[in-house]
Write a structure and sequence with these properties.
The structure is a single chain. The radius of gyration is 13 Å and the shape is globular. The protein has 5 helices and 9 strands. It has helices spanning 28-34, 81-84, 88-91, 107-111, 116-127, and strands at 7-8, 13-18, 21-26, 37-41, 48-49, 54-60, 64-68, 73-78, 100-103. It has a 6-stranded antiparallel β-sheet with strand order 1-2-3-9-8-5. A 3-stranded antiparallel β-sheet has the order 4-6-7. 25% of the residues lie in helices and 34% in strands. The model has no long low-confidence stretch (mean pLDDT 95). The chain is an alpha+beta fold.
Length: 128
């Protein structure tokens, strides 16, 4: 189930805006496609990225996949648990498997992303 309290990108990242900050992760579809996640290259707190810019890497037994910034902002915190337990993303991509937090966000960029229904429809089209 795709949570409806966040926005989604074409490259399968999600963002949940929480006031002046936002939480970022990858979707259940993305973690399922990757398979067993073995390593997450996290961005460094303090780094600033533009929307769509590469900001990390997720490696699995199947492949390595770039992580892209869903909306522009500055990284304020990363989920350090993923350094020792990257498989948390496989178990819980929408809550415990969050990847990083950002500030200095543009709410308009977030609003322009897909909502849960639009993202689900995109996945349905891709599978058809």
């Amino acid at each position: 189930m795709t949570p409806d309290d966040r926005q989604y990108t074409q490259s399968h990242e999600w963002v949940r805006v929480e006031g002046e900050e936002a939480l970022v992760g990858i979707t259940d579809h993305a973690q399922d496609a990757l398979g067993d996640i073995t390593f997450v290259e996290l961005p460094e707190p303090g780094q600033t990225f533009e929307q769509g810019e590469e900001c990390g890497v997720i490696e699995s037994v199947k492949a390595a996949s770039d992580l892209f910034m869903p909306i522009g902002g500055q990284v304020t915190e990363v989920n350090r648990h993923l350094e020792d337990e990257p498989e948390i993303i496989n178990r819980d991509p929408y809550d415990d498997g969050w990847i990083f937090k950002i500030k200095g966000i543009d709410a308009d960029e977030a609003e322009a992303l897909m909502d849960a229904q639009q993202y689900g429809e995109r996945l349905d089209r891709d599978e058809a």
